[in-house]
């Protein structure tokens, strides 16, 4: 005799619904998350499976039309986490939504939640990744606009937190653009590598019916099916790869932000933001703080933590479908990418509103002995002083000049000549050597190598970045268009498939 327990209508193995604690702490939050973020993807996958049932001859046209209509009625507010009726599982809730209205015994035959959930999660992940890439493109545009305004204005560049050589704000900001574009390139490549459909992998070892996995993958805008059924349901490597790219980007961005934060401080006064992006001190009315930069840098930490979270949740787990991997390791996907999008939006606004205080940058360059490297070069190339000796002579001149109270703009050719002579070298035109070496504008113009801080080279870099930006925009737009066209394509197939006779060859299926 069969018990009429509603729970046993879903499974003959479990006779009781989930406990209150399990529902409250695990199942209901998971249900809400999937209803909010994954429901549309579940419905699209169910429609593709429905079309396959018709092609396989499992369902007829009338059944397909009826089920398609019921799936079209699935909405967020129409589903609830019922511990008895659906075990608080959204896939079972969708199934119950349909079977509660229709009597179609063969629907969901030869199916598993394992590949269904793996497919839906990947669909959500790739959609969110495209949003992130679009936001990065906007941020890169802002960086390029800012850099283009400051290709000829000088400021000190720093190594080891010490003023080192003459650069321009445009040179520095073009590095921000380069970092963004590099990340976008890698994320596009990652998107293409992971865009393989798990659907048809079944629970573990594939399925019994002749599912057309290539056709299902194409309808869902995947590049193709995941070739290996076990990989399809066991792996969430795509999640690790996306998290890794986000973490790597965050590390680099945090360093670039550190420079902006330092230069915006009162010790340097090189960067200023408008009042709309500033904060105050409650105790010190003279201060203008920039906590927005701290917020952005602080949020980069969450992205590195996210990668550690995903990796830790997956490591040492069995290579099969497990809730630990499929649900727990993916739990922060939406939150983490939402954090990344928020910091990108904030940083875009910061870049649009940043002002480099060029007069301060020029004064700092005039004050610092930033041409020591060039002085050593000239001693070797023009005066035939061996390179290591030239380095020593240049360094000792700076020390002696500082001891004498000379600024970088004041030169003492006799002092340089005496230091060179003490090292066994006679030099000529010492005064002109010093004026050329410690002229900041001349120092900038001396940079000739590709990728240097020379204004012309920065302009070339920016032109190349703009070209790459256009190419990446087109690539991302094409991938977004493929996802946007997916629902209509699936509905067209469902409409046309009603007249297709069972046994039609896959190449003849609409």
Write structural notes for this entry:
- The protein is mostly helical and 510 residues long.
- Helices cover 62% and strands 4% of the residues.
- The protein has 19 helices and six strands.
- The protein has a two-stranded antiparallel ribbon. It has a two-stranded parallel ribbon with strand order 3-4.
- Helix 2 (39-56) runs antiparallel to helix 3 and helix 16 packs across helix 17 (430-437).
- The longest helix is centred in the last third of the chain and has 42 residues, at 455-496.
Shape verdict: elongated
Given as residue ranges, the uncertain stretches (5+ residues, pLDDT < 50) are 498-510
Oligomeric state = single chain
Q: What is the rounded distance between the termini? A: 47 Å
Strand content: under 5%
Helix residue percentage? 55-70%
């Amino acid at each position: 005799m069969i018990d009429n327990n509603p729970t046993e209508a879903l499974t003959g193995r479990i006779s009781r619904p989930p406990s209150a604690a399990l529902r409250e702490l695990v199942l209901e939050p998971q249900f809400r998350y999937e209803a909010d973020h994954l429901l549309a993807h579940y419905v699209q996958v169910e429609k593709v499976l429905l079309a396959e049932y018709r092609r396989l001859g499992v369902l007829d046209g009338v059944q397909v039309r009826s089920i398609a209509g019921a799936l079209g009625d699935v909405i967020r507010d129409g589903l609830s986490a019922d511990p008895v009726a659906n075990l608080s599982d959204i896939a079972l809730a969708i199934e119950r939504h349909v079977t509660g209205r229709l009597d179609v015994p063969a629907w969901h035959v030869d199916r598993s939640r394992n590949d269904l959930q793996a497919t839906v999660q990947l669909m959500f992940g790739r959609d969110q990744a495209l949003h992130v890439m679009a936001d990065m493109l906007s941020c890169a545009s802002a960086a390029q606009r800012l850099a283009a305004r400051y290709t000829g204005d000088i400021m000190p560049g720093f190594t080891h937190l010490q003023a080192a050589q003459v650069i321009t704000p445009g040179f520095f900001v073009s590095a921000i653009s380069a970092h963004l574009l590099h990340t976008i390139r890698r994320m596009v490549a990652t998107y293409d590598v992971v865009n393989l459909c798990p659907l048809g992998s079944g629970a573990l070892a594939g399925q019994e019916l002749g599912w057309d996995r290539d056709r299902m993958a194409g309808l869902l805008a995947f590049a193709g099916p995941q070739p290996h059924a076990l990989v399809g349901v066991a792996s969430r490597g795509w999640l690790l790869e996306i998290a890794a790219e986000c973490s790597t980007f965050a590390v680099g961005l945090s360093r670039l932000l550190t420079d902006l934060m330092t230069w915006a401080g009162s010790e340097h006064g090189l960067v200023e933001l408008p009042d709309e992006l500033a904060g105050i001190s409650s105790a010190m009315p003279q201060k203008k703080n920039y906590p927005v930069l701290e917020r952005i840098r602080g949020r980069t930490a969450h992205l590195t933590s996210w990668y550690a979270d995903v990796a830790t949740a997956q490591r040492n787990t069995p290579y099969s479908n497990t809730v630990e991997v499929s649900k727990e390791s993916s739990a922060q996907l939406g939150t983490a990418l939402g954090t990344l999008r928020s910091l990108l939006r904030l940083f875009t606004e910061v870049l649009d509103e940043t002002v480099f205080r060029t007069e301060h940058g020029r004064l700092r360059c005039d004050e610092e002995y930033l041409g020591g490297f060039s002085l050593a070069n000239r001693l070797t190339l023009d005066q035939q002083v061996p390179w290591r000796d030239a380095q020593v002579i240049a360094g000792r001149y700076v020390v002696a000049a500082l001891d004498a109270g000379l600024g970088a703009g004041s030169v003492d050719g006799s002092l340089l000549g005496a230091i060179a002579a003490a090292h066994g070298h006679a030099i000529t035109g010492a005064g002109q050597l010093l004026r050329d070496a410690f002229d900041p504008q001349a120092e900038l113009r001396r940079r000739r190598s590709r990728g240097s801080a020379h204004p012309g080279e920065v302009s070339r870099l920016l032109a190349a970045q703009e070209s790459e930006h256009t190419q990446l925009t087109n690539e991302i737009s094409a991938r977004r268009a493929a996802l946007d066209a997916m629902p209509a394509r699936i509905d067209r197939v469902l409409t046309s498939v009603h007249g297709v006779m069972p046994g039609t060859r896959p190449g003849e299926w609409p």
